[in-house]
Write a structure and sequence with these properties.
The chain contains 9 helices and 10 strands. By secondary structure, the chain is of the alpha/beta class. The chain has one domain: 3-Layer(aba) Sandwich (Rossmann fold). The relative contact order is 0.16. The model has no long low-confidence stretch (mean pLDDT 94).
Length: 291
């Protein structure tokens, strides 16, 4: 008898080349997969602008990186101050400092780093985390990437619609294609549960992201989808595969999804390359005990 339904990758829609740089943007699940890629000595840029959860914030940072215009004013307008800490609505707290000049410099350098990588990357992997967004109450329509512990009264909370995501990203994919014609885009929905939205809010949010990804894959060329959310919920499907917070996947679950990712998009030879790279990294990191 079978007691679980296992995800079995079908015929590969694309093959990824470990010798080509890859960019991962989005939720903290992107950090987990990106860390494993880096361990295998894959040239990887992971969330240079911090953890970004919603499609609009990821789109905004990509548009800045792709812009041919002066973006300094946009970056200056993104900064805000809380208890002497200067933050940027474009990024998470890693770009924050106690100096406006330093925070603006941090944001600018991170955007430039992303821009340079977009020129040479073979693949851009986007992980959508949630369709819920927070807009500045005093600036309607301005969606922030992180609330930075500001008072809830600072924001208006709403949920993106499928059509909003598809419209914004359809145009952006065209810009990306002109900027780097050989780069493929791979979408995925994060398996991390956003239970602050409630069970219903989280489920509907993930459904919106899934539908948006499906439509983008159906209407744009060289755009693909990896079912990390579905593997977590329909293959693993057990609380033992969650971390103690019952929200994030456990290390075992992330490792399993990483294996399925390799089986989906890497040839046997490429998988061997990654294993060799991982062994080399562990060898270089090994420090003998000297008595």
């Amino acid at each position: 008898m079978k007691f679980r339904t296992e995800y079995l990758p079908g015929k590969p829609e694309l093959y990824l080349d470990p010798t080509e740089p890859v960019i991962l943007l989005g939720s903290c699940f992107a950090d987990n997969i990106g860390r494993r890629m880096s361990l295998c000595r894959w040239d990887t840029l992971v969330n240079p602008c911090g953890t970004l959860y919603n499609p609009s914030s990821i789109s905004k940072i990509l548009r800045l990186a792709l812009s041919q215009d002066d973006i300094s004013e946009t970056i200056r307008e993104s900064v805000a101050c809380r208890d002497n800490l200067v933050v940027s609505w474009l990024m998470d707290s890693h770009a924050s400092t106690y100096s406006t000049v330093e925070t603006i410099r941090n944001v600018s350098q991170r955007v430039k780093s992303l821009s340079a990588y977009l020129r040479k990357a073979g693949t851009l992997i986007i992980t959508f985390g949630t369709a819920w967004v927070y807009e500045l109450r005093e600036t309607p329509g301005y969606i922030v990437s992180n609330c930075h512990k500001f008072s809830p009264d600072t924001f208006l909370r709403r949920r993106l619609k499928v059509c909003e995501i598809v419209e914004e990203w359809s145009e952006l994919l065209g810009v990306l294609g002109r900027y780097n014609p050989v780069m493929r885009v791979l979408f995925t929905v994060s398996p991390v549960r956003h239970l602050k939205d409630g069970f219903e809010g989280n489920s509907r949010s993930k459904a919106i992201l899934q539908l948006a990804c499906e439509e983008l894959c159906d209407t744009a060329g060289e755009v693909f989808y990896f079912p990390s959310y579905e593997i977590m919920n329909d293959d693993l499907r057990d609380y033992r595969y969650y971390a103690p917070d019952m929200v994030h996947p456990s290390e075992v679950a992330v490792e399993y999804i990483w294996e399925k990712f390799q089986q989906s998009y890497l040839s046997p030879e490429s998988q061997r390359m990654l294993k060799d790279g991982e062994r080399e990294t562990k060898r270089l990191n090994h420090r003998p005990i000297i008595s």
